[in-house]
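Title: Prediction job returns without error message
Component: structure pipeline
Severity: low
Priority: P3
Assignee: unassigned

Description:
Job completed but the reporter wants confirmation the result is attached to the right record. Sequence as submitted:
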Amino acid sequence: MARTATPRTVVHTVVDSPYEPLTLVAVDGVLSRVHMTDQRHRPPEESFGDRDPRPFEEAVRQLDAYFEGELTEFDLPLHLEGTPFQLRVWEQLRLIPYGETRTYGELAEALDNPGASRAVGLANGKNPVSVIVPCHRVIGSGGSLTGYGGGLDRKKRLLAFESGGPGLPDALF
């Protein structure tokens, strides 16, 4: 007898941010995605479910505090869907401290897979929870700003914001 999948409740809301509106998506009441406008790998809007702000109160509170410079580490339950390797990469992203960066190679080393920097980059690019899972904190070897699903301009602005200045840290040039 075939098993049927348990239906999931998917809802979303849209909130303002200094980096244009953010679309937050929850699965069964747990935050699963944060999308920027014109973000690469952004799924079609019909996958976001009905609009309902209720499951997002704490996420919105923490995002507001982050953008006000009052919060440096998010503490939210997340419902992440990805391959086992992607999930491991996204967990490593959450360990990068506020205001710091890591290279793709450093993340591959942390995963005990030093030859996997390109695979780390691909998984990083598929991060479904931008800002909260800080994929913007990953840079290329030598400090180059390579790739960001939300666009390099947003990546530069997020890194500058976290470094406390109007421009990028000198080490990133």
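Comment from assignee: result matches the submitted record. The chain is about 30% helix and 15% strand.
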